């Protein structure tokens, strides 16, 4: 893939001190700004501008050039039906620098400014695409460098997911992880191929061994002081389903099955670029679930890194297998917090749709912090339960665990219960079942790879990890 940190002017604010034209945000039936000339007022009225969400009216100056613009901000109720309302202006305004002429609450202004930058994202590695050339002057009171870091982290995640599988296998995901590490002075080690067996990662090896692209466990470390945060991301670079092969309708988006890995790398970039005072570890089991003579089989039983035996009842439930070994490795160091992100189950999408990823945790304070972070960052999450009466569903009798309980019910919950078996009961742990894909284009969110949950986690870290990171 192209360098994920290449120069992208559209993901940057206008330079400090740059001259900029005024952009007025108006709700429906709001009076026109007093600063407009009588001619401009007459022009806006003649155009029928009424503040409808997404509408735009360019106002002329005396020489026929552009003097300002009115942008329909819609009602608060209408804005709640989407995100990044201001991104609609970035897509429509002509090239140049623009400044918002309205007092937005700081938390609203940050989300809207980020949405403007994200509107400038294009995945142009394989085809030239037009990029918006309207630049925003960062609203006063905000930290432009921080918002640009958030945009860059989101772009990194989107790039990784959007890259086609012929150019994004385990080795390429390894290289991308090392590129992120090199940017921030982090260290990366990898356990590759048959060394996975020698080093105690049998489930990662079993899932990835049928592919000629060697499976591996990537381990990134950064920071020397502060609370320890470990991120675990599912890195299934392509998922055929294995011997329980997927139908074409289900295989079409499987390049995004490494969306958990892409998301934790985007979040790791944000954490390291902002120099948060913590110790960060990122574990990515990177595999390709292929069909071949060496593929693992239904009814195989493997002993995991933790020592729990797992019966394979569906080779298409491979994500929880590779995560199990990685979570066991994470848990061995007893970090302050383990977060697991994975494009894990279709059941999560049936329950909550593509926009709202569920998360699971037993820790009430952690759940509250994540919910608050999701609201603050306009990065939605919704808590689902580790419903213990369903534990029996993942116990097949012939082994400690079943990777794919029959019946088809509560699929996201049973997958989460499976993963919870590989971390200690006393540790702080949360699992996120993300989709990692934007099915239809929206302001600031083009169709394609999506970063979900990362900014919510970032916003929640001060409350989760304590005063050491309160300067976030």
Quickly list its features.
single chain; 472 residues; alpha/beta; Leucine Aminopeptidase, subunit E, domain 1; Aminopeptidase; 2 domains; nine-stranded mixed β-sheet; 19 strands; 32% helix; hydrolase; manganese ion binding
Average pLDDT works out at 95
What is the helix content?
25-40%
Question: What is the rounded distance between the termini?
Answer: 31 Å
* Largest beta-sheet characterization: 9 strands, mixed
Secondary-structure-derived class:
alpha/beta
What's the architecture of the largest domain, going by CATH? 3-Layer(aba) Sandwich
Helices, by number, come to: 15
Q: What top-tier CATH class of the largest domain fits best?
A: Alpha Beta
Number of strands: 19
What do we call the CATH topology of the largest domain? Aminopeptidase
Radius of gyration, whole Å: 24 Å
CATH superfamily of the largest domain: Zn peptidases
Number of structural units classed as domains:
2
**Low-pLDDT ranges:** none
The coarse overall form would be: elongated
Organism: Paenirhodobacter populi
GO biological process, one term: proteolysis
GO molecular function, one term: manganese ion binding
Family: Belongs to the peptidase M17 family.
Question: Would you kindly provide a brief summary of this structure?
Answer:
With 472 residues, the chain is of the alpha/beta class.
């Amino acid at each position: 893939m192209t360098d994920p940190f290449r120069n992208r002017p559209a993901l940057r604010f206008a330079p400090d001190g740059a001259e900029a034209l005024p952009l007025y945000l108006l709700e429906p039936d709001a009076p026109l700004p007093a600063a407009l000339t009588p001619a401009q007022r007459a022009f806006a009225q003649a155009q029928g501008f009424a503040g409808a969400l997404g509408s735009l009216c360019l106002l002329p100056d005396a020489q026929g050039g552009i003097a300002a613009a009115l942008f329909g901000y819609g009602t608060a109720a209408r804005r709640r039906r989407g995100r990044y309302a201001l991104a609609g202006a970035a897509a429509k305004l002509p090239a140049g620098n623009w400044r918002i002429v309205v007092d937005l609450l700081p938390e609203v202004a940050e989300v809207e400014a980020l949405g403007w930058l994200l509107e400038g994202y294009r995945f142009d590695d394989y085809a030239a695409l037009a990029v918006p050339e309207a630049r925003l002057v960062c609203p006063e009171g905000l930290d432009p460098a921080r918002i640009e870091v958030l945009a860059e982290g989101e772009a990194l995640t989107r790039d990784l997911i959007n890259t086609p599988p012929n150019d994004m296998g385990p080795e390429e995901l390894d290289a991308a992880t090392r590129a992120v590490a090199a940017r921030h002075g982090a260290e990366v080690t990898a356990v590759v191929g048959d060394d996975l067996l020698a080093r105690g990662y049998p489930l990662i090896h079993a899932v990835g061994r049928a592919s000629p692209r060697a499976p591996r466990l990537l381990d990134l470390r950064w920071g020397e002081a502060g609370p320890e945060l470990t991120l675990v991301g599912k890195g299934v670079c392509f998922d055929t389903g294995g011997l329980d092969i997927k139908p074409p309708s289900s295989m079409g988006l499987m390049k995004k099955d490494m969306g958990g890995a892409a998301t934790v790398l985007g979040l790791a970039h944000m954490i390291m670029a902002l120099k948060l005072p913590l110790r960060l570890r990122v574990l990515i089991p990177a595999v390709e679930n292929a069909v071949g003579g060496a593929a693992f089989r239904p009814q195989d039983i493997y002993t995991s890194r933790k020592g729990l035996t797992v019966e394979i009842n569906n080779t298409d439930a491979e994500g929880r297998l590779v995560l199990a070994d990685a979570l066991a490795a994470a848990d061995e160091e007893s970090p302050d917090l383990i977060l697991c992100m994975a494009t894990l189950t279709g059941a999560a999408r049936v329950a909550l749709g593509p926009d709202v990823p569920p998360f699971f945790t037993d820790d009430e304070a952690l759940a509250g912090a994540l919910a608050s972070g999701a609201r603050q960052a306009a990065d939605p999450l919704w808590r689902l339960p580790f419903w213990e009466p369903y534990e029996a569903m993942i116990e097949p009798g012939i082994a400690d665990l079943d990777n794919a309980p029959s019946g088809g019910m509560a699929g996201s919950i049973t997958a989460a219960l499976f993963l919870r078996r590989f971390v200690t009961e006393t540790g702080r742990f949360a699992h996120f079942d993300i989709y990692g894909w934007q099915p239809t284009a929206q302001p600031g969110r083009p169709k394609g790879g999506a970063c979900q949950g990362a900014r919510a986690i970032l916003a929640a870290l001060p409350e989760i990890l304590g005063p050491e990171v309160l300067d976030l």
